[in-house]
């Protein structure tokens, strides 16, 4: 098995989910006592979050490129970034390393197309929902129409991620907020919903949603393990 390098810590709450899912999928694929061979570099989220708010994406790209180089020097054969939002700077990471980089939107795009979905709702941070680095990739590579919540709903979704989920706080009232947002996306014609922030998996499970759920965290981890076992 190849070694998966994970840039984590954004937040560490979702990075623990990555570690669990990587190993669970490796065991499902290989059986016995198998784990996923992995390295994780956990960054300090506080300066990253501050640079996000300041719109300093150049500095963020430099920091994550350095993290990727550290993983490659440590023996990673593949690098993944355990956050949707910071794929805003994925090109900086790809250019910094010689090993492959697995973009988080690609396993989700492939799964949606395989399911026959053409119009999908997207939940994530304000950056992921409002900027084009994510929705544009889904459109250009997978011919997907992406619907995002209205402005007030986007504010609620973003606030719950940063003020609650990033701190490990999972609240029923916030789950109800997300469920109402999903219902609105369904009313506008969404056939499914992307959990486009790696923390949302802590709050919304398939049984909580009126729409089929495509969890980027789970899909990304599974694709990384599949590549590590049978690189393509």
UniProtKB/TrEMBL annotation:
Organism: Paraburkholderia sediminicola
Keyword Heme: no
Superkingdom as given in the UniProt entry: Bacteria
EC number, as in UniProt: 5.1.1.13
Pfam families membership: Asp_Glu_race
Gene3D superfamilies: 3.40.50.1860
Record key words, sorted: Isomerase
Keyword Ion transport: no
Name assigned to this protein: L-aspartate/glutamate-specific racemase
Family to which the UniProt record says this protein belongs: Belongs to the aspartate/glutamate racemases family.
GO MF term (any one): aspartate racemase activity
Top EC class, one word: isomerase
């Amino acid at each position: 098995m190849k070694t998966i390098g994970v840039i984590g810590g954004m937040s560490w709450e979702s990075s623990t989910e990555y570690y669990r899912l990587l190993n669970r999928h490796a065991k499902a694929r290989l059986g016995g006592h198998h784990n996923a061979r992995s390295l994780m570099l956990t960054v300090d989220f506080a300066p990253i979050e501050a640079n996000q708010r300041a719109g300093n994406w150049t500095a963020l790209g430099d920091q994550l490129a350095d993290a990727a180089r550290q993983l490659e020097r440590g023996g990673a054969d593949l690098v993944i970034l355990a956050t949707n939002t910071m794929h805003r700077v994925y090109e900086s990471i790809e250019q910094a390393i010689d090993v492959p980089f697995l973009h988080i939107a690609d396993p989700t795009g492939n799964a949606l197309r395989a399911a026959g979905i053409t119009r999908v709702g997207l939940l994530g941070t304000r950056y992921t929902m409002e900027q084009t680095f994510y929705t544009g990739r889904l459109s250009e590579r997978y011919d997907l129409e992406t619907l995002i919540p209205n402005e007030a709903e986007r504010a609620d979704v973003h606030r719950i991620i940063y003020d609650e989920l990033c701190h490990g706080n999972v609240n029923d009232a916030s789950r109800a907020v997300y469920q109402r947002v999903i219902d609105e996306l369904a009313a506008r014609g969404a056939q499914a919903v992307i959990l486009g922030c790696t923390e949302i998996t802590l709050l919304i499970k398939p049984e909580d949603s009126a729409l089929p759920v495509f969890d980027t965290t789970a899909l990304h981890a599974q694709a990384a393990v599949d590549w590590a076992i049978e690189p393509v």
